[in-house]
Amino acid sequence: MVWQAYKKVRANKGSAGVDQISMEAFDANRSQHLYKLWNRMASGSYFPPAVKEVEISKTDGSIRKLGIPTISDRVGQMVVKMFLEPRLEKIFSPNSFGYRPNKSAHQALKQVRENCWKTDWVIDLDIKGFFDNIDHSKLMLAVEKHVPEHWARLYIKRWLEMPVLTKSNTLIQKQGKGTPQGGVISPLLANLFLHYAFDKWLENTDRTIHYARYADDAIVHCKSEAQAKQILNAIRERMKTVGLELYPQKTKIVYCRDYRRKGKYPINKFDFLGYSFQPRTTTSKKSNRLFLGFDCAISIGSRKRIAEKLRTLKVESLSFKSIVGVAQYLNPMIRGWVNYYGKFRASELTKVFRLLSNRLVRWARKRYKRYKTSIRKAFKWLQAVREQFPYLFYHWRYSFINVIA
């Protein structure tokens, strides 16, 4: 079990924890590290070290704190995760998509998209500081219900109680709540907690309600504004009883306005998993006519993040001798953007790739003397490159609106 878990952790890569042992250093003395972990886990004497706190910026300007375990501890957590996941998968709701095998964000988006066409109202839910506020005692009740093995319960309890080493080298002890966002087993435990705190409760409360949940982000679909208000109040009370709180600024009721639904309501848009759902001009497949639909596409926030990434990459200053080197450097990122944000209404990525084209033109003007004085010639050169090598950049192979303008 330890060996299989190690192979998965190694494939996932990741940085060092509080012991500063990187994956390369771990591999150099792998046998000793894995034997020590197996010996202690098998005897019940394994106590996980503190997790290292890492701060990352969120889209709204706030900071998200991640807890990074050591590589040995990630292997230990993976052992228990692999042991329990097949069992817990059998009880989880089909409407839960986050951090589950054979489930994806695209599946969640597809379900929300189809539900928005069927029902008029949406509750966009966001739980405030979810991972930091999971109640240990309530979570352990769910664990004990499904995990009779004492050794697995023992280590789950110890992982929940792991202290956090902050950036200022202060050791913070847990106060009966929270699980580190960044731990291997944390998403599984979070899904188990929300299975009883939200999924199962909502399904028992009103079986006519459709919803989709990805980790702590959930979209609930209602037939009327009155039902949406009633369900939102019930969810708010339910969150209080399990020790959680809805984020007031991010939780809202949305009206799915389109050509059929013409009622007036101030909020007609919500974001979910990097996509924006809102009224959009759509072409009918049958009649080829335009009509107002309610659909999703890459959100403004996601476009801004990609634009910021292009800015920090300084494409125009890359030192490659030819455009081929630039393409090989950028293509892994472009592939990720296209594969994720191009799933629905891919043409909305045009604005992003026009920014990239502008930066490629600036690169050419820096690189080649003949284009320094003429931006028009530089754009013509880029167009000629695309015509000659249509697969050079990953996004060129798709039929977007002309991204070289």
Quick structural overview:
The chain is 47% helix and 15% strand. The chain has 14 helices and 11 strands.
Describe this structure in words.
Helices cover 47% and strands 15% of the residues. It has a four-stranded mixed sheet, with no helix packed on it. Strands 6-7-3-8 form a four-stranded antiparallel sheet. It is built from 14 helices and eleven strands. The longest helix has 20 residues, at 186-205. With 405 residues, it is an alpha+beta fold. α13 (350-367) packs across α14 (375-388).
How would you sum up the global shape?
flat
Broad structural category: alpha+beta
If strands are numbered along the chain, what order do they take across the biggest sheet? 2-1-4-5
Uncertain segments = none
Strand content: 5-15%
Radius of gyration: 25 Å
Sheet with the most strands?
4 strands, mixed
Distance between the termini: 55 Å
Please estimate the helix content.
40-55%
